[in-house]
């Protein structure tokens, strides 16, 4: 495995002049960013990990690790004590919710870090609080190829480090304004083909649910983090002479964890091909519990006209074909109840779901709720008004008239 070293600015000797603020800033930029010429497809993007073996002779491995949460805290760049403590805390990533048990919170974990440890066994990754939120979203940014970063005006940051160890370059001061927003757009651009192949982002409106999901960095961060942990779980162990054994606490109780050697560090991915494979794994991880595919299927099955932009696309053509195809339309007979509520007649029960999938796309959310309630056996306007939060049935009556007119047009051959 390739071991990585952070670039550092060496202190001057007594015979050398103190560097100016401008020189320090330029050193930081040179260490933070990589030139386009050096960001070759076989080397960039890149993400690395440093072995916990540099800090720990043994680590705790929970039998059931909890998902990691990122917590941003204010960090003084001049505080070496805090920087060192945060680095050690994060390097114990394998210990997950039990990482605090590697430390004496009163003496080894200063300030906010000690307060986090006092919260109990929680799997927390600590990052600096910044306006750009770069350190929280670094796992996502470092999956994007050079062409995508440049397309959205993002800088070429050198190899990322997971988990966060130190902000030696004061990255926030060198990143562009609106960094998180630009990253959101770049990420959506990169992940979209894996969500909706065949039609690009521009084919859909800004408020289309899948487009919003693609831009949501907070949705994707847990999946990418979990993927990283799975990759690291396959790294070999450093030979510290530790035989796997139960984790026995000072009071004699046994923790739900095993004590073992820390794992080696190295590259998590290097180059565009590796990054593309990891991105695919992250999408699959987002669907590990059926959540992502469930969302995709639900959205695609319930599209409405407002989901699309004015541009032509295969998705829009398919939607309009299904919506207007005479062969999938069925006639619906409306009957009048005592309080003049129209419902679908019994002769349409067989086709009920087919009617809903197409006709409902023409209604707004409140109108859809009314039809769903009618189809579920609600027959009194006052009852429907109460469920939907209206003070009386007048609004329901007006919406029913509108629904009736839309239905007459739609279900007329």
Structure notes:
The protein has 413 residues and is α/β, with parallel strands linked by helices. Helices cover 40% and strands 10% of the residues. A three-stranded mixed β-sheet has the order 5-1-8. Strands 2-7-6 form a three-stranded antiparallel β-sheet, with no helix packed on it. Strands 3-4 form a two-stranded parallel ribbon. A hairpin with a 5-residue loop joins strand 9 and strand 10 (342-344). It is globular, with a radius of gyration of 28 Å.
Q: Main traits of this protein?
A:
413 residues; 3-stranded mixed β-sheet; 15 helices; 10 strands; disordered N terminus
How many alpha or pi helices? 15
Fraction of residues in helices? 40-55%
User: Overall 3D geometry?
Assistant: globular
Rg computed from alpha carbons, rounded to a whole number of angstroms: 28 Å
Mean pLDDT, to the nearest integer, reads 78
Q: Strand order of the main beta sheet, please?
A: 5-1-8
Instruction: Report the sheet with the most strands, covering strand number, pairing sense and barrel closure.
Output: 3 strands, mixed
Beta-strand fraction estimate: 5-15%
Q: CA-to-CA gap between the ends?
A: 68 Å
Order of secondary-structure elements: HEEEHHEHHEHHHEEEHHHEEHHHH
Would you identify the regions where 5 or more consecutive residues have pLDDT less than 50?
1-12, 326-357
Class based on secondary structure composition and strand pairing:
alpha/beta
């Amino acid at each position: 495995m390739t071991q990585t070293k952070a670039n550092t600015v060496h202190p001057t000797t007594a015979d050398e002049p103190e560097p100016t603020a401008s020189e320090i800033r330029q050193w930081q930029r040179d260490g933070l960013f990589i030139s386009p010429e050096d960001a070759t497809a076989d080397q960039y993007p890149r993400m690395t990990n440093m072995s916990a073996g540099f800090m720990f002779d043994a680590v705790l491995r929970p039998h059931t690790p909890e998902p990691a949460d990122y917590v941003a805290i204010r960090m003084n760049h001049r505080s070496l004590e805090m920087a060192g403590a945060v680095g050690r805390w994060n390097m114990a990533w394998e210990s997950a919710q039990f990482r605090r048990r590697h430390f004496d919170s009163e003496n080894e974990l200063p300030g906010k870090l000690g307060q986090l440890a006092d919260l109990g066994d929680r799997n927390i990754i600590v990052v600096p609080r910044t306006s750009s939120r770069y350190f929280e979203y670094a796992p996502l940014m470092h999956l994007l190829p050079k062409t995508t970063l440049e397309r959205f005006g993002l800088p070429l940051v050198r190899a990322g480090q997971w988990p966060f160890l130190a902000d030696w370059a004061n990255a926030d001061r060198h990143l562009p304004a609106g960094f998180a927003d630009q990253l959101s757009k770049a990420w959506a651009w990169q992940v979209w083909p894996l969500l909706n192949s065949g039609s690009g982002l521009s084919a859909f409106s800004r408020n289309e649910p899948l487009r919003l999901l693609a831009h949501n960095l907070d949705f994707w961060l847990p999946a990418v983090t979990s993927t990283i942990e799975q990759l690291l779980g396959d790294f070999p162990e450093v030979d510290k002479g530790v035989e796997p054994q139960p984790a026995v606490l000072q009071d004699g109780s046994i923790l739900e964890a095993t004590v073992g050697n820390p794992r080696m560090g190295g590259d998590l991915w290097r180059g565009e091909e590796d990054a593309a494979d990891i991105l695919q794994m992250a999408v699959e991880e987002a669907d590990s519990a059926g959540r992502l595919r469930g969302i995709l299927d639900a959205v695609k099955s319930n599209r409405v006209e407002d989901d699309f932009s004015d541009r032509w696309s295969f998705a829009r053509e398919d939607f309009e074909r299904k919506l207007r195809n005479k062969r999938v339309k069925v006639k619906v007979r409306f009957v009048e109840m005592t309080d003049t509520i129209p419902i679908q007649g019994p002769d349409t029960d067989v086709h009920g779901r087919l009617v809903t999938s197409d006709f409902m796309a023409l209604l707004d959310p409140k109108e859809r709720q009314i039809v769903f309630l009618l189809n579920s056996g609600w027959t009194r306007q006052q009852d429907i008004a109460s469920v939907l939060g209206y003070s009386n049935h007048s609004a329901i009556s007006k919406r029913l008239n509108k629904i009736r007119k839309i239905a007459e047009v739609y279900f007329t051959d």
